[in-house]
From TrEMBL:
UniProt cross-references to InterPro entries, sorted A to Z: Calcineurin-like_PHP (IPR004843), DNA_Repair-Maintenance_Comp (IPR050535), Metallo-depent_PP-like (IPR029052), Mre11_N (IPR041796), SbcD (IPR004593), SbcD_C (IPR026843)
Classification via PANTHER family: COMPONENT OF ATP-DEPENDENT DSDNA EXONUCLEASE, NUCLEASE SBCCD SUBUNIT D
Protein role: SbcCD cleaves DNA hairpin structures. These structures can inhibit DNA replication and are intermediates in certain DNA recombination reactions. The complex acts as a 3'->5' double strand exonuclease that can open hairpins. It also has a 5' single-strand endonuclease activity.
Top-level lineage group: Bacteria
Gene designation: sbcD
Domain Calcineurin-like phosphoesterase: 1-218
Protein name, UniProt field: Nuclease SbcCD subunit D
Originating organism: Streptomyces lannensis
Oligomer status and interactors: Heterodimer of SbcC and SbcD.
NCBIfam families, sorted: sbcd
Length: 387
């Protein structure tokens, strides 16, 4: 049986204020084309279909379009809710939608109830484990301590118990939205440590043939049978080095796994550049980034004037500007109180301006600071008299 494993669509999410809906729609078209052209037997989407619990209408319309396109193919699709989704909202109408071959698994109660498909070699049982927030599901799974490993282990115990009742040779696929030990995270994933230690060991998935993971945005392999597909689009500059892709997985008659990585459409490449402004504007090596979405880190000791406007002349798609000025190291071991000792309010304020901007205030700015301090002292004196 041939599976297409994807996850973390995050429909409705922007990238540094850039609307990504067109790129997300292009990805949906890419999924449909891949299913048709590569003879896919089942699609699995491992959570974070939406970017937030109450998605914008345009994102809901795109999801609706995706459901219709997938249903029209006649290829079964399994989807689970992730930590960004509202499980209740995503699961509305799941029974009816399931009749069209789109199987939404958003209720933890159903972890041990699979969608069973068949090929010439027998049955394949697909188990959907939606994101399990420990504090919310610990009673359902009857665990004493609300931790990710405890609830996921309990959910997998239900999977193994159901699998044991099925015909010998039944193959198994688990969809899960979780942070597995050994995975590499990025800046665009929402922290899931609220319910305890986030990472769970890969060993909790023992006994199944393939584990289709979601949550981490970088495509990665944690073992022959355990993979993250990653997000189809980049949602932070920490993903500049990612190759965005899906897994085309062939599940053999004996449960063996062969996986091929398929690239996703890239709306625009990402680039992180660093250096002094003049150097970034003149360096011929950076010509390859002129059409990329750019994050620029400026190291000028003094913050240059209008840096974003000047960068945009060469890199018109600059989206993020970071300042990390090169400065001489401060006296080691000197406490903050010691550095301020004997200094006036005016001097402290001027030092702060220099620290933030890289250069101290000019004469006009010093007068503004002086007027502000004089006004503050006068106000304090009036309030003191009023007492």
């Amino acid at each position: 049986m041939r599976l297409l494993h994807t996850s973390d669509w995050h429909l409705g999410r922007a990238f540094h204020r850039v609307n990504m809906l067109d790129a997300q729609a292009e990805f949906v078209r890419h999924v449909v084309t891949t299913v048709r052209e590569r003879g896919v037997d089942a699609v699995v989407v491992s959570g974070d279909v939406y970017d937030r619990a109450v998605p914008p209408l345009a994102a809901v319309e795109l999801f609706d379009d995706a459901l219709h396109r997938l249903a029209d193919l006649g290829v079964p699709t399994m989807m689970i809710s992730g930590n960004h989704d509202s499980a209740r909202r995503l699961g509305v109408g799941a029974g009816l939608i399931g009749r069209a071959g789109i199987h939404l698994r958003t209720d933890p109660v159903a972890c041990g109830t699979p969608v069973v498909l068949s090929d010439t070699h027998g049955d394949v049982a697909f188990y959907g484990l939606p994101y399990l927030e420990p504090a919310l599901v610990k009673d359902e799974f009857m665990v004493e301590q609300a931790g990710h490993e405890a609830v996921l282990t309990a959910a997998m115990d239900r999977v193994r118990a159901d699998l044991a009742t099925r015909a010998p040779g039944t193959r198994s696929v688990v969809l899960a939205h979780v942070f597995v030990t050994g995975g590499e995270s990025s800046d665009s994933e929402r922290d899931i440590t609220v319910g305890g230690v986030a990472a769970v060991p890969a060993g909790v998935f023992e006994g199944v043939d393939y584990v289709a993971l979601g949550h981490l945005h970088g495509s990665q392999t944690l073992g022959e049978r355990i993979r993250y597909s990653g997000s189809p689009l980049a949602y932070s500059f920490s993903e500049a080095g990612h190759r965005k892709s899906m897994w085309l997985v062939d599940l053999g008659a004996d449960g063996s796994v062969t996986a091929e990585r398929l690239d996703c459409p890239v709306p625009r490449p990402l680039a992180r550049i660093r250096g002094r402004l003049e150097g970034l504007l003149e360096d011929p090596e950076l010509a390859r980034h002129e059409e990329a979405w750019v994050e620029a880190t400026l190291t000028d000791p003094v913050r240059p004037a209008e840096p974003m406007a000047r960068l945009a002349e060469r890199f018109p798609h600059t989206l993020s500007l970071v300042f990390e000025p090169e400065r001489a190291p401060e006296e080691p071991g000197a406490s903050y109180a010691r550095r301020l000792e004997g200094r006036s309010d005016q001097e402290i304020a001027e030092d702060f301006v220099a620290h933030v901007r890289g250069s101290g205030p000019d004469e006009r700015e010093r007068l503004v600071l002086q007027d502000a301090f004089d006004a503050a002292r006068a106000d304090a004196a009036v309030r003191e008299v009023a007492r």
